[in-house]
Amino acid sequence: MSIKDRETRCREIRVKAVCGKGRKFSQVTHTINPPHTPTSILGAWVINHEYEAVKSSDGVEVVGTYDINIWYSYDKNRKTDVAKETISYVEVVPLSYLDPKHRASTVEVSAVATQDPNCVEANVSSSGGGVTIRVEREFKCEVVAETTVCVVVCEGGCDDFDEKTTDFSGEGDFEDLDPDLLDDELD
């Protein structure tokens, strides 16, 4: 097939598509210094999580904040109080895939917290004056941009499609489908 034949049988179409993907799980440790010296930790939780995604040269940056609340006892377990601190963070999510042919001027990024920040451990610090908190979080990011796809053009057009009968009723035989394969495709 000559180049001229190929050009007449293929078309390049500019589309908006997912051109990059990435995922990152992380654990971070924060030290909170409540106004009273804690005796024991009665509870710790993370609330008010807010974030946004921005494109960076290393992937996608997730910039956000959350509040850590610590319910603790002090004065030899005779009194309790709640300490609150707002944490700011920047999480760089590397892209495991990025289409090199995307148009950089059209990039839109998004992030989804597949695991919102969650306190998995809270202890009185070894110095006794503060509380160390371990927080887990995970993000999945996508980069959407304009890119070019190549499609094959039917010689003579697609007029014959209207004349054919196609059954779209959904009454097909799906017993032979492997559900594990379908789940993998959704990730």
Characterization of the model:
With 187 residues, this protein is mainly beta. The protein has one domain. The protein has 3 helices and 7 strands; from the N terminus they run αβββββββαα. It has helices spanning 3-9, 159-163, 179-186; strands spanning 10-32, 38-56, 59-74, 79-93, 97-98, 103-124, 131-152. It has a 4-stranded antiparallel β-sheet. A 3-stranded antiparallel β-sheet has the order 2-3-4, with no helix packed on it. The protein is elongated.
Q: What does the average pLDDT come to?
A: 85
Sheet with the most strands?
Answer: 4 strands, antiparallel
Structure summary, number of beta strands: 7
What percentage of the residues does DSSP assign to strands (E)? Answer: over 45%
Which segments are poorly predicted (pLDDT under 50) over 5 or more consecutive residues?
none
Task: Write out the strand line-up for the largest beta sheet, numbering strands in chain order.
Answer: 5-1-7-6
Please give the share of residues in helix. Answer: 10-25%
**General form:** elongated
The helix count comes to 3
Report the structural category: mainly beta
Topology as H/E string?
HEEEEEEEHH
- End-to-end Cα distance: 38 Å
The tally of structural domains comes to 1
Q: What Rg, in angstroms, do the CA atoms define?
A: 27 Å
